[in-house]
Amino acid sequence: MAAPIPHPMREKLLRDEVAYTMSIKLVKSIEIAGMAKTAGYDGILVDMEHSSFDLETTNQLCVAALYAGISPIVRAPSKDPFFVSRILDGGALGIIVPHIRSVQDAQDVVNAAKFQPIGHRSSTNGLPHHQFRSIPAKISNPVTNAATMVIPMIETLEALELVDEIAALPGVDSLLIGTNDLTAEMGIPGDYENPRVTEAYERTIAACKKHGKWLGVGGLHARLDLVEKFCKMGARWVMAATDGPLLLGAATKRGAEMAALNASVVKSQQANGHSVEKKATNGVTNELGVECIARSQQFDFNDENTTLTHARVNGYVESLRRRVAELEEKIKVAEQKHVQARTASLGTVDVVSPINGKRRRSNYGSVSSAPVNEQIAANGEEQSSVQDTMSAIGLLSNKAMAESRTNTGDKPHKLAIIESISAALAVDGRDPSKASSSQPAYVMDDQLTPLTRNLTLSPFHRFLDWSVWLPHIDENRLYEQYEAVLETSDQGVDPARTALPRFNTYLAVAIGISMSPDAGRLSSLASNLHAAAVKLLPFILHSQEPLDTLHCMLLLAVFSMFSASGGSTWHLMGFIMTNCIAAGLHKTVPPRNSSDSEATYRVEWLFWSVYLWDRSLASVMGRPFTITEVDISVTVPDITEDETASGPVRNKLALSSHLITHAQLISDVLGSRQPSPLFSYSNLCFWREFPPQTGGTTTPTGPHFDYLDQLACRALILMVQPKAQNLTSSEADAESDSEVEADTITCCKALIEKLYNRSGSGTTVSFLDAYDILAAAVAYICLVQRAPQPNQTGLTQTFEVVSKASILLTQCSSKFSALSIFQQFLLTLSTKMMEGQGSLQNYQDLIPPGIPSYLRRIVQRYSSSRTISNSL
Fold first, then answer.
1. N or C: which end of the chain has fewer CB within 10 A?
2. What whole-number distance in Å separates Cα of residue 570 and Cα of residue 432?
3. Helix, strand, or coil (residue 409)
4. Are residues 232 and 287 part of one domain?
5. 146 part of a folded domain
6. Residues of 80-90 as b/e, b for ≥16 C-beta within 10 angstroms?
7. Is residue 544 scored above 70 in pLDDT?
8. Does 741 share its domain with 838?
9. Whole-angstrom Cα distance, residue 782 to residue 748?
10. Sign of the CA dihedral with 571 first, then 577, 580, and 581 last
11. Residue 204, domain member (yes or no)
12. Cα dist from 783 to 314, 423, 446, 579, 716, whole Å
């Protein structure tokens, strides 16, 4: 099945919430769609019945609404298919038809609006609803039918009499009462309080509830008391406002305010004894006895050509006074908001968090590395929001059209988060090194396969065993959620209440499948579980726990490392760390709530889970870190302080802490301070020699500890710095460089052989493993060939290592097809080695774009050093 069409209005109705639209009858420009989105409306209702709009204008407004992320609904002039089908082809997601007088009238609308087998709408392709993509009708028509809302109007006495039969029609999604026309037909025009109006609503609401349809309220946007009454009775969407009255009302209000202001100024002047016509003077007279009028010129702070002259001093001072008054007023408002928000915030958090809209202290948008006074931090670093500050200096809001700048901090712009996650998931995961749009993936069956213990227990345990990389996850609590989901999988459940447990279960099983020997056989199940989990995100986003969304995004990022269908890991991790910083998790640990006993994760470890993957991803791909060490003030939790943790939990967190130490070591190696290789190598040796103990006296073993060798190899490759042989250096430096290079050669060869021997067990790898394999092979080739004349044994070993690495990369490219370039590059590089050093002089042409920068430097330095060596 094709991907569902985003339809905020319908999605809100499915959640049994009240949706509301802005009617468009005056404004023809497409900007009105973005304004409606910013104002918080779920859709626009383009009114062709009561306006002069033609089809072209209507279609442009509909397409603008689609791209703005709100639902375009159109009221057609009549039920004529000439209008209905062309309106829908132009981008509308709903069609309202007035003056319905019979069941056949409503059926005619269904026939014109729905494709076969529901209606008889002419099939077409490249619709704006599907981003103008060409999708087979067999796939696109059912999806389009599901998203297209057919809304007959109940505004005649005949339709009211037949309302039950009209609501029962297949293909009718909603009814809309046109209150004005209905009262006119009743002979009581505009008498909204008449009991007959209430009876009409009661009758229509009963028919809608009986047949599972939604009712809309029209013509009452000036009577919100009645709108609220009918919505509480069962109506579920409202024609809430119209562009013309909105503009006229706001303009009239401001005109009245200015008239009152003018009257107040005139009255004040008269009270002070000044004539309105007389200009104020500064009391100074010249030699002729003429009073000098004070020069006053307004000072514009934002004018780039503004300079301070004698003529402007007076206006400058007055402008400063006005500005001080404005800022004092803003401070008062900000302090009031701050006090109100603290009860709902976590710790000392002050600015709006993109995770859930609660106020948090952070340096969102710019993470300062300067030390902050502790007392200031304790009392809150800033009282005004980032958006207030940006507005004050004349910049656009950092959320642009996505959020109203007049209503910041009250409610989060949660749709922007969903859209950002959706965008990252839409990136083609087959090439982790770049962002390219993915081909549409069609799922033949939208129904999730019933989860059984036999099917899911093994991959679920595999995920739990691997969760040392996610130290924030509480395995016991996650297992309880897994059991609960299995027990209720075949029963009707509240999606909002069970969204997080089901999301955790679906992703845990999907990730476990993706890293298991059965990944190929069960790939469809993993993809379906991933898709089902993504659909639960809106429910989780509306939960009261602010960090749920962050936890869910992290699971999505992990899945994308093992599956090309999971989207872009790089974009997801960037978005995750941005939200971490915005939430202030890099500065302080949120206090535990009273309900934390039921939490799936340990909040004090959440930032470090994100930190681990940020460092891993950036280091293997040659990308910058999303946050520097100097900006992190929170410390790794002390395991010994948690007296409630069991032995296995302590062992897991000890190993997680060891992994974090490695990530910090990588940060030092690649950071701005650039410590000497010998210093970094000494730290790495200490890290390798003292792994965490698991309660025994022997060296711990297991798959997790095997991975420590891979991490050590990764660090060594980043440390190794090949130097040209003609460059002078001290004996100590030369000896240390030689020691690091020898250790790197040994580790690279051992890693490739270990992964090659393990490949026969069917264990799958992530694309990070592919980068490590390539790095190990390239580093091995370059360092081994540094000998002036490699012997035959050395060439044979090199060939063996290259062959094994090539096989491993081939296996990786079966999941991430774009990584096949790694194998091609490795084979080309090894061939050039066999031909001789001179053939590497044009190394720029040899290295494809997707190769990480640190490997480019190794090849470059190797090529330069060998070229110089051969010329000596």
1. C
2. 7
3. coil
4. no
5. yes
6. ebebbbbbbbb
7. no
8. yes
9. 11
10. negative
11. yes
12. 73, 41, 52, 41, 12
Looking up residue 241, the CATH number of its domain turns out to be 3.20.20.60
Query: Residue written as tokens 């592919």?
Result: 770
Number of domains in the chain: 3
Kindly report the number of other CB atoms within 10 A of residue 62's CB atom: 27
Name the residue among 714, 465, 472 with its Cα closest to residue 608.
472
Selection from 594, 593, 610 nearest residue 549 by Cα: 610
Place 299 in a pLDDT band, splitting at 50, 70 and 90: very low
Does residue 225 or residue 374 have the better pLDDT? 225
Same domain, 81 and 148: yes
d(CA 756, CA 811): 10
Q: Mean pLDDT in the chain?
A: 78
Structure-block tokens of residue 842: 């044009």
Pairwise CA distance, residues 308 & 786, whole Å: 67
How many C-beta atoms surround the C-beta of residue 856 within 10 A? Answer: 16
Q: What is the pTM of this model?
A: 0.53
Residue where a domain terminates, one of 327, 343, 359: 343
- pLDDT at residue 735 above 80? no
Q: In angstroms, what is the C-alpha Rg of the chain?
A: 34
Report DSSP letters for 751-803, one per residue.
HHHHHHHHHTTT----HHHHHHHHHHHHHHHHHHTTSSS--HHHHHHHHHHHH
What one-letter code names the amino acid at 543?
S
Phi, psi of 188 (to 5 degrees): -130, 55
Give the 3-state secondary structure percentages of the chain, helix then strand then coil, rounded to 5.
55, 5, 35
Residue 86 inside a domain? The answer is yes
CA dist 544 and 550 (Å) reads 13
Instruction: Examine residue 4 and say whether the peptide bond preceding it is cis (omega within 30 degrees of 0).
Output: no
Map tokens 């050039």 to a residue.
832
User: Tell me: the pLDDT tens digits for 384-426?
Assistant: 343 443 333 333 333 333 333 333 443 434 445 666 777 777 7
Q: What is the 3-state secondary structure (H, E, C) of 296-320?
A: CCCCCCCCCCCCCCHHHHHHHHHHH
The helix/strand/coil state of 1 is: coil
Q: Produce one character per residue of 142-158: b if its CB has 16 or more CB atoms within 10 Å, e if not.
A: bbbbbbbbbbbbbbbee
Residue 761, domain member (yes or no): yes
Retrieve residue 232's tokens: 């509480």
Per annotation, catalytic residue among 7, 50, 130, 704: 50
- 447, two tokens: 């129904």
Residue with tokens 């780039």: 304
Q: Determine the 3-state secondary structure of 44 from DSSP.
A: strand
Catalytic residue flag (residue 472)? no
Looking at the fold, whether 71 and 180 belong to one and the same domain comes out as yes
pLDDT in tens, 206-259: 999 999 999 999 999 889 999 999 999 999 999 999 999 999 989 998 998 899
- The residues facing 217 across adjacent strands are 177, 238
Q: How many CB atoms lie within 10 A of CB 662?
A: 22
Residue ranges making up the domain that contains 333? 279-343
Confirm if 513 and 519 have CB atoms less than 8 A apart.
yes
Residue 279: helix, strand or coil by DSSP? coil
d(C-alpha 171, C-alpha 601), whole Å: 44
Rounded Cα gap, residues 262 and 264, in angstroms: 5
What pLDDT was estimated at residue 762?
Answer: 58
DSSP state of 78: S
Rounded distance, CA 867 to CA 344, Å? 65
Same domain, 229 and 338: no
Q: Are 533 and 498 in contact (CB under 8 A)?
A: no
Pairing of strands 149-154, 94-97: parallel
Contact criterion met (CB below 8 Å) for 91 and 72: yes
Q: Which of 34, 1, 5, 40 is nearest to 20 (CA)?
A: 40
The one-letter amino acid at 463? F
Q: How many CB atoms lie within 10 A of CB 301?
A: 12
Report whether pLDDT(19) > 90.
yes
Residue 178 has phi, psi (to 5 degrees) of: -90, 90
Single out the residue in 316, 343, 370 at which a domain terminates.
Answer: 343
662 touches 688 (CB < 8 A):
no
